[in-house]
Amino acid sequence: MARFLTFLGKGGTGRTTIAIAAAKKFASLGQRVLLAGSDPGPGLGILLGEAIGPDPQEIAPNLKAVQFQTSVLLERGWEEVKKLEAQYVRTPFFKAVFGQELGVVPGMDSILILNAIREYDSSGQYDVIIYDGTGDQTTLRMLGSPEIVSWYIRRFRQVFADSDLGKTLSPFIQPVTSSVLNVDWSGDNFSQPTQEFNKVLDKWKDAVADPNQVTAYLVTTGSQAAIATARYLWGSAQQVGLSVGGAILNQVPAADTLAGEFDPLPISSVPLCSDDNWQPLIDALPDFSKAGSVPKPITINVAERTVSLFLPGFDKKQVKLTQYGPEVTIEAGDQRRNIFLPPELKGRQVKGAKFQNQSLIVSFA
User: Fold this and answer.
1) Is the pTM of this model over 0.70?
2) 63-67 and 33-37 strand pairing
3) 326-343 mean pLDDT
């Protein structure tokens, strides 16, 4: 899998400039880089010196750029849906609907972009993918969507299977669906249609949980609003299991004064990029290979019966904890995370929670 990098921060802090500099840095090291932008505006193209389209185009040796366009991604995705329909359904009904006719539903952008990134990664053409997204909660929800969708599949499938309706219909589902679909659902009436999808979800969940595969970096200026936003996004990133590898201070003269705001993250201070001279900025970027040394978003200690969540930027008053069956739900800010407990902790009730060293430590009986 390609290394995936993105940048979080308030608008106007220079995230796009930092993303371009990072792409140039990796390309100069011989890595095959794809720089992917989500903003349909001309900003990325102006900074790169040429217009960027919906297909990857070479900008420099080892460096390609693409600008995601939701309408184009929707058309391509719809064609894939029709291929799957033809594979599983004997009488396809989507074939009469064309992608050009479809409207974009709010929230669809993120799913389409994540799928496009997955396809570029699966192509094997890139060593590094740098995503210049919105850098806010939308980006975090996109990266956290595999975990969220997996939870919905896991819980609702089990709820249906355990319900009276599910138990009543179960003996009839296999013969009825076999007459409509080109698949055999014997053994598990619900597993085969979602099996491949779950494999994709698991792959991305594992990647997001690995700081050597997927990493975000905070970008901020010296303004209090930018600093507060970066800290908030830092804590929110932990809620989707995303590791934050460091903080990049853009044009901050006295970087040492902000060290306490982002402790224990490594901090890099970068200069203004002027007159198309990217090298000083590139040289000041952090060593992206050291992201694995940052605190893990979640740590489960079975022996001590504890679950620790690293939640910088939040305090105990801003966090809500609930427990339903084998899972614990943590709400912090605008993010919610469902933690599926290991077998050793299943069935045990939460007996307490405390904040210590920017972490929420949950103890089980």
Assistant:
1) yes
2) parallel
3) 83
